[in-house]
Amino acid sequence: TRPTSSRLFAVTSRSITEDELRDSFSVFGDVQGVWVVKDKQTKESKGIAYVKFAKSSQACLAMEEMHGKVLMDGTKPIKVFIAQSRSSNRHRDVEDEELTRIFVMIPKTFTEEDLKDTFKEYGEIEYCVIIKNKSTGESKGLGYVRYHKPSQAAHAIENCDKTYRAILAEPRTKTTVTEEYSGGMSRGEYMGGNDSMNQYAFPMAEPVNYQGMDYRSGDFTRCLMISTRAALSQEQIFSLFDLIPGMEYCELQRDNYGMSKGHALVRYNNLGSAVYAKEKLNGFEYPPGNRLAVNFVDDGEDRSSPVSRMAMQLVAAQMMSAVWNGPATNQVMKPHQGYSAVSNMSRVQTDVNLPPLKKLAPPDSKSKERLFVVFSPSPLPLDVLEDVFCRFGSLIEVHLVPGRKVGYMKYADKQCADEAMAVLHGRVVNGVKMKVMLADPPREESHKRPRTT
């Protein structure tokens, strides 16, 4: 992806040429292009120019060093800003706090000292903040690092380990500070690991009033338009919308100059996933402070025939009412006449054919094998897990580890556990991806291996 903040907007004198600008700015890095804005009629310079660098850090350094400098005797000092998209009239200057503050994802064990130690190699740090859960005081695995200079923040984003997923932070003024530091799941929580699924969790199981949605309208499509004020890369949008299974296309819209327009198009291979993505991610803040807008886009499919309309309603209704770990009563919305299939839909939606339900083993059975399951983005409810894992026989119990996205499945028969692992590893159930592995056999305290992160 093209780096954000890598293009400069300079107010110069009309007498300064492209070549002179290129010479002056190329000492700070790889100048990919210089464009002097000229009057359409007279073809004379308007005293405004754009300078494009290969990296944001180079552009920021050039801005810091060149702002207020006199390029040629007898000309006024030039003004240099980071250029925003062409549709925006606002350009960011050296003083802009947005350019010095980065938002990072960190292990929940990190202290502010750890955060500072990790990021100080990129420049002098003004402050570090770890976002904590207001009620428990625990770290949410999210933090901010504020540098003194924009070039230091850009340097950190470009060079820090990719698992930190560093991006420029939005200014605090866009949300009240108390809201920013206290929000729950809605603000996104970090999961360990660097799997693309592990970027943000959103509240999978929060109650949503689906009765209020009219499934008879033809407004649903498999195509969504995402609008964002923050400069997000295609990878960031992809990894967020890829949390919902079935994404087949994701493209950031760019203008003629290759700059992001703040819009991306995402298409799913089924209507249900698109309906769910719109419902869950419209208004979702990513990163905190930047509210995404998600809307359906006409994808050109003909929905005029009664058959296609009916299929569309059925898929949307199934997704919304039965699938997403909603209340145990499957009757989330009263199906319209002719859609009675919805009411007895299974609560389990997955991309694998599951065997029929089997009885649990007696609770006092001896455990012969334990499976360790990692959930992404968030754990499934116990009853759904029991429903899925009991189908291979001999399941004794399901245990979720509080506060973590992992759980254990105990089986009375090793073969049953092995079969469950073979079938379910890497599969998605109700929008949650599962990694299913053999658990380490219980060890004596003294022999425990140190935990590796």
From TrEMBL:
Keywords assigned: RNA-binding
Top-rank taxon: Eukaryota
CDD domains assigned to the protein according to its UniProt record, in alphabetical order: RRM1_RBM45 (cd12366), RRM2_RBM45 (cd12367), RRM3_RBM45 (cd12368), RRM4_RBM45 (cd12369)
GO molecular function, one term: RNA binding
SMART domains, A to Z: RRM
Domain RRM: 6-85, 100-174, 222-299, 369-441
PANTHER family xrefs: HETEROGENEOUS NUCLEAR RIBONUCLEOPROTEIN 87F-RELATED
The name this protein goes by in its record: RNA binding motif protein 45
Natural source organism: Labrus bergylta (ballan wrasse)
Lineage per the UniProt record: Eukaryota, Metazoa, Chordata, Craniata, Vertebrata
